[in-house]
Amino acid sequence: MSHPVSQALPQTEPQAAGLFVPRTLLDDVRLKPTERNAWMVFRSLADSHGIATVSYESLRTALLCAPGSHKAAQATVSRAVLCLRLTAWIDQIGYRRDPRTAFRSLAPT
Asked: What are the distances in angstroms from CA 19 to CA 22, 53, 99?
């Protein structure tokens, strides 16, 4: 089951081409490479307001950890999102209920 994740990313200076990665993200000793990659996925999918709505399923395909694997583990994605939230690299901006399952999922407000 896939739950969408919406995160508000801190605004950074715009760059004409490519993805701007803050030096402080790369120097943050609290983050592992998987968390840095997750931040870059969020940033690359963010709209002009800095909001990215990404499903855990799409993050699983973007955060592969083992050669030859097709998807990262659900726990890997959850851990990366949690670590980025705890270190304030991303912010949770709201919840909504999935109409099919009634589970709470992250969504823009």
From this structure: 10, 17, 35
Coil/strand/helix, residue 98? coil
Environment class of 29 (CB within 10 Å of its CB; exposed 0-12, middle 13-18, buried 19+): exposed
Structure tokens at 14: 């715009």
pTM: 0.69
Count of CB atoms situated within 10 Å of the CB of 49: 10
Torsion angle, alpha carbons of 65, 55, 93, 35, to 10: 10
pLDDT one-digit tens code per residue, 9-37:
555 544 434 678 899 999 999 999 999 99
Q: Which amino acid is at 100?
A: R
